[in-house]
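Supplementary Text 2. Reproducibility record for the structural model of the 729-residue chain.

All settings were left at their defaults, and a single model was retained for analysis rather than an ensemble. We include the record here because the model underlies the residue-level annotations in Supplementary Table 4.
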Amino acid sequence: MVSIPYLDKADLGPLADAAASWKALPAKYDALQREFEQRVINHLKGHWEGDAADSAFVTMGKARTEYENAATEAERIAKLLLDAHGEFTASQKQLHALLDEARNDHYKVYDDGRVEDVDPRQDSPTASASPGLAEERKKKLDSLVSRLTRVLEVATAADEAASSALERDANGDSQSFNTSVYTTLDSVEADQAAALMNKKGRLSDAEITKLNLLLSANKNDPEFSRDFAVKTGGENMLSKYNELMSPPAGTTLSKAQLAQLKELKANLGTTIGTATTSDDGGQPDKDITKFQNDLLKAGQRDFNANPTESPYGLSGYQLTSSLMSEGKWDKDFLQGYGDALITAEKNGANAGQNPDAYWGYPRTLGTTNIGALDPMAGFMDALGHNPDASTEFLTSDATIDGEKVDHLDYLLKDRHWPEGPGYTGDPGNPSGYNNLGHALESATSGRSFDDDGAPVKHTAERAAFMNHVVDTIGGDPSLASGSPRDALRDSLGNMTAEYMADVQAAMGNEQGTIKSFGAEADLDPGRLQPFLATVGRDPDAYVAITEASQANTAIWMQQVAEKNPSDFATAMENVAHPGGVVAGILSDARDQAIFEEHSASDKDFNDAVALGDKWAGRGLGMAVGAATSTAAPIVGTIAGWAVEDIQAMVVDQVQQDTVDEAKHEASERYAEGREGVRSSSAESVRQAIAHSGLQMSADDINVYAESAARASEDGYSAGTTWNSSTSGR
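Retained model, structure tokens:
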């Protein structure tokens, strides 16, 4: 691996000079060729005849060809050196930027790549009073390490590829100029990676390390990924992957070797995904089309990693799904793959009711336990990382043996999901319903389920799908109730938080202040209430929905304050009441989870708050985006204060003390929840007025705050009553 000091101080000037010199050579060789023809060949023609002349002219013709070959090779070497210089320069520039960032943020980067936090605040009393500081610093440190490693990997792969290309004699004839040399580092690295995948027999640790380096450095590069995939081939790709993940019986792998294989799974999956998208936006690439078709065809066969041993390895579907849980994959390929996967199950596993037997023994994950026996789990995560594909797939159907099969109905209602970490590939995830939740999240949000980046405005198709999900589960809460189906709830909670403006608007939006973030989902309150009641029993879902609801309410109040309507109090009441209804439903659902369903405790809910408050900030972002789409001038105001002040207020209100169940009467919990929503609404009004520039007396502010507090309290009472009545209590 190229070291930090080496890349940091490397003088790339000589390489640039060498590239420039080689670039100038073709013109010089062309001039020499013309001079040779004019002064030698043309001068002799017509003046020399006979056998000796014939032989000489043949030799001179070869010399002319050598001039041409020399010019061609010089041109290609120049391109290669320019490519190498560009790669090294970019890597060096990125390294310098990272080192500057580290110094400015009080991190020390050592020559061996270690990064240490040297922020003086770590040892100060202030740090202990700010529990979020340590977590924030750790995230920054991890990010720095990851990005530094990435830069060094790219530089190392480029360095080794350039060295290999310059040493290559394509003709195998040292007496002749090369007429077929590399011109880009991508082509060198793709050849090197494909050669490792095509090698007979198991790769050594050093070879796996080399393969990991090449894939990690280039996994998001369409040109490299395409060439690598085509040169390796779909079926051979799966066969080698199966072999690597299933060592022979009796093989003991160290923790480092297992980590290396897990890294390979991620790198290989991302690389293949990039290959499938390498022709997107242009003309279809017949070689990539063939590669995708080969993957689909290979799904139907079993791959035995060790032919002399039993049981067998994995099927093509299991191997492909294992890889596609990583990276971005072609939307059309995922659509076709999903149809093929459902068809295989419908035709071979009691119409999808017994995938345990269909995908299980004699197939085995092998001693590494990398991958999953249920290929649908990996496919769902593939959809979870590819929003366009998930929206299309989950809103469409397949025709199997002449019968229409709705994709969502099959996955949510009809299919039996095998349970156990062997089927999901994740020790902490006993059910594929969690993976299905990931697909639902990306289909409704337009983002990868694990993407914490900026929200994406909801399209009409995604909003309509959210409406369909709420109607489906709200109409039959058993679809997300009880193990293992309750594993869906955390994702459904994120989806609800994502559409919080639509949720609140469904509970009441008399003056139209509440605006959807993009297209309207037009949720039905009658289906929304049982949906919230079911989803809100999950601690993570409860926190996400509550934070998003309070953040949205704060923004709508800010918008009212900015507009300063004549009936100020009524306008504030109208935006406070829906949030109160949501809080009431969730409060009652929380109590049901703790005291009736016994699926969670107060501590579980509080721990969920402590693990993060992203939905307070994300809810603010979406609400601001929706509000500003109506030309309300609140962006500057919100940017100045809301994220910090409202986020802190929201988290404080969501947190509740853990108490002994026997000492906590229902009436006390009800009063606690009601007071929480009252104080939250009142504080939001005060913040909105304070930051709007309105000049009001303290008495007037108190009146408006109390008015909004009562409205939210009324909403809370309505929500708890509504929820209790529909749950039979």
